[in-house]
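Summary of Year 1 activities. Much of the first year was spent building the evaluation harness for sequence design. The harness presents a backbone, in tokenized form, and records the residue chosen at every position. We chose the following record to illustrate the format because it has been used consistently in internal testing since the harness was completed.
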């Protein structure tokens, strides 16, 4: 059953061959492990970046607190400026309002523009000239003139008109608000809640 090796040199050669095969297997396993570790690290980094972007698109939203409009004209009375107060939604990080885009859709057509382009932005709790919401207690009043500037192509709103306003933050999160002008605008009104 067992063969007796009489020559000692043959016995050493069998041991060296086994050692070479063993070392080759260890090297192959080490290379495969290195490839797997690199791939896992790359996938983890990519998954983290995707998760952060997805979280930003969901949580970095604006919250519309109130909306009103300036009433002007004689007959018919019309709304020529929108005043929309916004805040950060819960869990949102800093939002730069100058890089936030606005889309107006209604009876006057469609207009899209960035808030940094001629729209007035006043942050109540921030410093003068600051246009970044940094805290959930921050409030900003956004004034959009419908007769001049970037939204001039839209035109004024008359009694009974509806307008959809969509804010898109730099991270891609959107917030929509539906504005409705009351059917009757009286001569005593200078401002109306929309």
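For this record, the design step produced the sequence shown next.
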């Amino acid at each position: 059953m067992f063969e007796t090796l009489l020559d000692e040199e043959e016995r050493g050669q069998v041991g060296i061959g086994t050692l070479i095969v063993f070392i080759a297997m260890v090297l192959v396993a080490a290379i495969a492990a290195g490839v797997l570790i690199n791939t896992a690290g790359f996938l983890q980094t990519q998954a983290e970046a995707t998760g952060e972007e997805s979280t930003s698109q969901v949580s970095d939203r604006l919250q519309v607190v109130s909306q009103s409009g300036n009433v002007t004209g004689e007959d018919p009375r019309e709304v020529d400026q929108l005043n929309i107060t916004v805040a950060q939604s819960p869990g949102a990080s800093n939002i730069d309002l100058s890089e936030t885009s606005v889309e107006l859709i209604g009876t006057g057509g469609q207009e899209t523009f960035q808030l940094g382009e001629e729209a007035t932005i006043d942050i109540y709790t921030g410093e003068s000239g600051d246009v970044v919401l940094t805290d959930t207690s921050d409030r900003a009043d956004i004034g959009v003139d419908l007769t001049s500037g970037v939204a001039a192509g839209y035109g004024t709103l008359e009694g009974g008109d509806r307008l959809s306003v969509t804010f898109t933050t730099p991270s891609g999160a959107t917030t929509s608000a539906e504005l409705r002008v009351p059917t009757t605008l009286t001569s005593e009104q200078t401002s109306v809640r929309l």
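The chain has a mean pLDDT of 83. Quantitative recovery figures across the full test set are reported in Table 2.
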